[in-house]
Each structure stands twice: as structure tokens, then as C-alpha cells.
Amino acid sequence: MKYSASKENYLKAIFHLQQEQASVSTNALAQALQTTAASVTDMLKKLKTQKLLHYEKYKGVKLTTEGRKVALLIIRKHRLWEYFLVQKLSFGWEEVHEMAEELEHVTSKKLIDRLEEFLGFPETDPHGDPIPDLLGRMPVSKQVNLANLTINASCTVSNIGDQTAEIMELLNHKNIRIGTKLQVKKKFSFDNSLEIKLSNQTAFTISEHLAKNLFVKYDDPPEK
Amino acid sequence: MKYSASKENYLKAIFHLQQEQASVSTNALAQALQTTAASVTDMLKKLKTQKLLHYEKYKGVKLTTEGRKVALLIIRKHRLWEYFLVQKLSFGWEEVHEMAEELEHVTSKKLIDRLEEFLGFPETDPHGDPIPDLLGRMPVSKQVNLANLTINASCTVSNIGDQTAEIMELLNHKNIRIGTKLQVKKKFSFDNSLEIKLSNQTAFTISEHLAKNLFVKYDDPPEK
DNA sequence: ATGAATATTTAGATTTGGCTAAAAGTTAAT
DNA sequence: ATTAACTTTTAGCCAAATCTAAATATTCAT
How far is A166 from chain B (nearest CA, A)? Predict the structure, then answer.
């Protein structure tokens, strides 16, 4: 059960795209993987014969149970390495993605399980994404995009969409980071901007563009 | 200046073989890399056009300055990862080689330099091999195989050849490890066994097979 | 419901790294 | 100085992953 780095990347990309849409199109994959539709078609045929996905000509793909498991184990490796790079090697969370893209293809399972232990079994990577366990199970995070949040509900920032230097600059300025608690006070339909309020601060407005890049979890109502 | 894992492996193998012989033969390389002489010839041509080595048909290869530098940077990565696996992830030194073979091809230079810092700038890997610095310079170790050692010279074990569980068992039993000081007292030409003496112990005999797997450095004569 | 626009697949090539079998070069022993 | 034994190279092929260009499906708008 060993797959090439390229195949692993296909499975991972399909997994991520499936979060948005049940069935993934050839073109969407080509774009995600920065390749051509023709190459994607070729690869899908290969992955199909390996029973990693369900694929019928012109009809898009879905991962099989096995394919999903492989994808999750790669995501596990990616996120654990990211955590290592940030926590142990002191990289900034915005610069670790590329390195993790390479490290995730290192095959040894024993290595990644030991790494997880060394890191103290973290639950999420530095971007707030949950880390699948050693069997490839991932806690359902019930993340919600800020733009879709219920007015006035309390929530905690759990994830940032694109981690560019630009977004980081803005978030730093506004004092928003993973773990920040906030409420959406108002939505303006004119430009889809949102008025939000951090605890102990006066409310301010953020653009639709920023809101779409912020993911939150509803704060659990106090237990009992 | 990015080379495929395969090319990196060729350069590394040539570097190691050059420690024994100034010029490396096609066959020796084929054996070291577990491939065929024909494949080696093909690859040598490619590496030559990239000016990583000096090669003339039927005459063997040598690395160029650039080739040697690339090889040393891979060896640097290999040894730092081995150190990490043993010191931080608690693997045994005999089980880390394969994992390091993969990790050494992860490209980021920044990553390996940070890793080195995180590890506290170790000077040798868990097998006692010196770690090249970030410019690809390696301290000349002047290691000598125990079987070739001058009679009665004082030396320190600096390296063990094949790190199998079997050799480890034997070395543990004899109380020999990296750093152990010893002298060769006698060589028996009949079976090439050696009589050696550790400090404060009575001399004992070791087989040719074991001697060939032990490398030492001559102890410097007391300075001045 | 049909034709234009879009999406997808096929066909044929390329690159990288590897293989086998056969040819050619080198070395060593008499 | 030849020839046998060997090493090395050449020639032709294969597989993986990619590409471009052409062909074919699908979808959407009227």
C-alpha cells in the first residue's frame, strides 16, 4: 500500500474539494493541482484501477473508503509536520506549508506516530485544522464560515482560510488570531460587510473578503 | 540547483566510494545503488552535462567541486535527521537509516539549518560520523579501519560499519562503543584476528569480521 | 430542443529513470 | 601478443507522469 507522491497529492486534493462538493470535477482538480485536465483524466483512471476512487467518464470523482483513508493519513502527516515546524523549529505558521508538502510524503508510519508522541499529541495544526489520528479518523470540527454565522452567537476563531502574508498583516492589526472570541453584531447586505465585536472591545467592521477567510466554532453553551 | 532524489543518491554514493578509491567504477556504483551498470552509464552522462562530475568513457568518475558540495549537503541532511530521530524521537541508531534516506531529499535548506540549531549543533551523527556544516564543509576525520591500525598506537573508536542488531550485541558484550579507547597489540596473519586492549582491561581477541567494522581515530599525541 | 460554449477525454509525444541483450573496450594470463 | 574474462557502453524498450492538440460529451441559453 505505497503510493507515489503524485498520487497522494491527487487523493489529498480530492479530499479537500469534496468538503465543498460531493463530486469533484476534472477541471477543479486540474486547477487545484496546477496541471492540465488531460493529465487529471489519465491519473483518475489509474487511481480508479487501484480502487481509491469512484470515477465514471464525464461524471466527476469521489473517494472510496480506502481513498479517503489514504488521504487522511497524508493530511495527518502534513499537519503534524506543520506543528513540528512551528512549535519546535520556530517557523512562522505562514511559511511552513511548502515544507510540509514535502515532508508529508515521507513514508514511515512509525516515524509519524513517534513524532506525534514527541509533540504531545496535538489536536490541531498551527492553522487550527484538526489532526487525524493514527487510524485516519478526524474529529468533525463543525467549523462555520464567519460570513454565515448567526447574529450575536458567541464563537471562537478556529481557522484562517488562505494564509498569506497580507491576511496576516490585517489580522494582526485587528488583533484577531486563532482562539480569539467574537460575536457578529450586524450584517450589511449592501457589500456583505460584517460588524463584529471582540470581548471587551468596541465593535468594528470587516469586509466580506476577510469574513470569508475566517472560520469559527460556536462556543458551547456552558456545560449543564 | 535542485536535483532529483535519484541524482542526489548517485552523488552521495560516489562521494562515499571516493573515500576508498580516487576514481569510482561503473560497476562499483551499480552495486552500491542496487542497479545495473547500464543504468549507471546513462545517469553518469546526465550528471556530467550538469558538471557535477568528471567522467570519461571506460575511465571511471570523480566528483567535481560542485558535485562534492551537493553530496556533502545531502550527507549533512542525512546525519542531522538521524540525530533527530535518535535523540528526539528515541529510535535506536540501527533503525534510523532508512527513514533518513527519505528525509535527506527534503529540499528546504532553511529547514535543515533550523533543525541543526534545534538539535544544538551536534558534531557527529549517532553512528559517530561527522556532520558537514551549512556550507558543506566536513571536518576531516582521518578515520582508520581497525584492521589497518599501527600496532600499539592509541586510538578511539569513532565509527561502526554496519549497524546491525548482531554487531550491537557483540559490541555491548565486549564493552566497546563509540568513544572507547584502545590499542591493537597483535595481528594474527593466520585468520587476521586482532588482539586488542581497552584501557584498564586485559587484552582480548576479536575476529577479522568485527575488526573490519570498527573505525578509529588515532589519538593525537599530547599537544606540544 | 438545438447550437454555442464549456468540460472532458483521447491520441500521440516527451522526460526521467530504469531494464535486458548485445556490442565494444580493457585487462590479465599465458 | 593473443585470447579469455571482465567491464562498460550502446541500442532498444518500458513505465510513470506530464504535456498539447484534436475529438467528443455535456450543459445552458434562447
Answer: 22
The reply to whether B141 Cβ lies less than 7 angstroms from strand C is no
Classify burial at B39, counting beta carbons within 10 Å of its beta carbon; exposed 0-12, middle 13-18, buried 19 or more.
middle
pLDDT digits (tens, 9 = 90+) for A160-194: 877 777 888 888 898 888 888 899 999 988 899 99
Cβ contacts (< 8 Å) between A99 and chain B: which residues?
A: 106, 108, 111
CA of B191 to C1' of C30 (A): 32
CA distance A80 to A124: 8
For the stretch A195-198, contacts whose Cβ atoms lie closer than 8 Å and that sit 24 or more positions apart, written own/partner, are A196/A146
**A190-217 pLDDT tens trace:** 899 999 999 888 899 999 999 988 988 8
User: How much is the pTM?
Assistant: 0.80
Cα–Cα distances in angstroms (integers) from residue B153 to residues A72, A182, B178, in the given order: 58, 74, 17
Q: What is the pLDDT of residue B165?
A: 78
B97-132: per-residue pLDDT in tens? 999 999 999 999 999 999 999 999 999 998 888 999
As ranges, strand D nucleotides with an atom below 7 A of a protein CB are 7-12, 16-22, 25-26
Instruction: Tell me how far apart the alpha carbons of residues B69 and A156 are, in angstroms, rounded to a whole number.
Output: 50
For the sheet containing B181-188, what is the strand order? B144-145, B214-218, B154-160, B181-188, B193-198, B204-206
Chains A and B form CB pairs within 8 A to the count of 35
Query: Which grid coordinates are listed for B152?
Result: 600499539
> What does each C-alpha distance from B20 to A216, B58, B64 come to in angstroms?
61, 19, 17
Give A222's pLDDT tier (boundaries 50, 70, 90). very low
Q: What percent of chain B is helix, strand and coil (3-state, nearest 5)?
A: 40, 20, 40
CB atoms within 10 A of CB A121: 10
Q: Provide residues 19-58 of B with CB closer than 7 Å to any strand C atom.
A: 33-36, 38-39, 42-43, 46, 58
Please state the separation of Cα B190 from the chain's center in Å.
29
Partner residue facing B103 (CB), from A85, A89, A106: A106
Helices (H), A1-95: 5-18, 26-32, 37-49, 65-87
